[in-house]
Each structure stands twice: as C-alpha cells, then as structure tokens.
C-alpha cells in the first residue's frame, strides 16, 4: 500500500469510525469533507471537542450530562419539586425536554436491568433514586422507561421497590400523533383500544 | 426549554450534525457516546482533529490529500512513472489504493464537469493534467472516472483534449466480483456481454 506511515489523517479516520452510526467508509467521507472545510468546520469541531472533553460531567444529583456539578435542570428554581421523571438514558431526558411538556425533575438510571449483561440495581442509579425519594419529598414518580422488554422489566422492578412510598405513573400507550393504523403493530393498536377515551 | 444557555455540548452537537451521514439525532447519540468515553475517545479525537486541521494539505502535484506539500504517492520512487490514473475525488484515489492493483501515479480532478453547477475545465484540475502530461513524460492515461453521466461526460472531454498526445484507457466494465446477474442492471449485463472474454 502507498500509505505505510500511519498519518494523522488515518488516525482521525480510525477514531471517527468508532462513533455510533459511522463506519470506515462514512468516516473517510467525513474526514475528506472536514479537510475541505478545515477552517470553518474542522478547527471549530476540534475546539468544541476539547471543551467538552474538559468540561462535560454527570450531574451528581440526577445523572444528566452537562458542564456543571449540578445540572441546569436540577438547579432551576422555576421547576416543580416533588415530581420526578425516571428515564433510562440522558438521550431520553433530552427527548423529554425537547417535547417541552414536563416541568418537574429527572432521574437518569443509566440503562436497564439485564441479567444477561450482569446489570443489577446497583449498576444503575436505583439506590440514588431511593435516596432522592426519601430526601427530596417526592410525591409522584413517572416511570418514563422505553416500551421494550428490558425497559418494562426495569420499570416493574422500580415500581416494586417504591410503590409504598410515592404515587407511581407511566407514560400513556397509544397511537402516535400523525400515526396511521395500517403501519402500527398489533400491540400498540390493542393498547390504544384498551385505553380509549370517551369523547 | 431547560437549556437556555447554549452549552459547549450543544455547540458540539450542532457541528457534528453537519458531517455527511450524520443528522441531529445521530449527532446527539454520538456526543453522548463521546462523553461516556471522554478519556479514551473524545480527547484523542479532539487532538487528531487539531493535528489534521493544522497539517492537512492538498498535494501540489496530484491533488491528493496528505500532510506534506508533495504527497507520499507522488514522492514514492518505487512507483512507475509515465502511467497516470485520473480520478474524480480523493476518495476514489483512496479506493484505488485499497485495491492495491495500481502502482503508477494519480491525478485528482476534484469533481466532474457540470454545466448546471457552473463547473468548467478550469474549475477542475484539467489544466494541471495537461501540464503534467507535457512535463512528466506520461505515456498512458487511465481515465478511472465514475460510471455516471457526469463522470463519463468529463472522461470524454478529457479524452478529446489529450488523445493525440498519450495512450488512453478506461476501467473495464462488467460483472463485479461476487456479483449476481439477477441483481445487476441491464446496462452492466449488456456491457459485460459485449466485452466477453474467450476462455
């Protein structure tokens, strides 16, 4: 081959190819794109990565990712205390925030229980959840876990642990906004029918 | 929304989302992945980008991308002179090199002719190609442009310009290795039939 010395460009391609959603081919494309846009994209991207590498941290309270010890949501005085939304991952928290429909606090578990992968309650932030329920005068916990087997197993486990201390709820199941029945799975249609609303 | 101050994390997401093959959602996923792997991936990636931003340059001779004024291929004494492979983009050059089947020199055009986009011969590296043919004692030019309308239009234009000075060839058309006839388009099957080889 004609590139015997691993150049900085090859190193960059290899590192980029490790990102989720990118493979070797798309990493090569991305690097060529970045080199063409050296000044306006590659340099700012390098600096933004450096800044995030130095400043990103997990919120000590809820597990959200931010640049402060206690995240913006936990330290926001305008949000309701007492109402706690439990999510699997930071990505789910961000999705809830984009929806803009929730003004309480969050608790990020950091995954789901999984016997196969050896993930027990102590690998997740379940002990911290119990501490918060005791310490923060939480009155309602919304279990906003994914509608997957692992997500719902985890939700049941948590419900079991805390149901005598707080009111529990979960997100409604049904037809998504803009959804077409013909494209929905049987389970969703069944759930939407069971939870039908009187007009 | 709860993230009123644009944090470094948001900046990084926005920049990553501009890469080809990534959108806002995959950029968010990638950033969360990078934050989890701060030490082993994010920091090295930031440094690799910085290095490439500072060192990447186009080879003055052939248009390949590397970290030196004249690229490794152009300055490799073991490669054949006189045989020049013309490709559209650096990505195509890299693909040829991965195949490892060519040991001559390259010339990267930087795109294809396009009346619609206002790309004429002078926007590509066609003048430089003519200079090299005159100056480097090139005897054969392989037009390895893509089998697209634009690629083939450009190949015809170049052939027209230089056919009286050098031997010209193009990559063979036919059935790809591992290819199944049932999945091939009619044009490819026709070309493979016309170029059939006697056993």
Automatic annotation (TrEMBL), chains A, B:
Domain Toprim: 82-176
UniProt family annotation: Belongs to the RecR family.
Gene3D superfamilies registered for this protein in UniProt: 3.40.1360.10, 6.10.250.240, RecR Domain 1 (1.10.8.420)
Name assigned to this protein: Recombination protein RecR
Pfam families: RecR_C (PF21175), RecR_HhH (PF21176), RecR_ZnF (PF02132), Toprim_4 (PF13662)
Keywords: DNA damage, DNA recombination, DNA repair, Metal-binding, Zinc, Zinc-finger
GO molecular function, one term: DNA binding
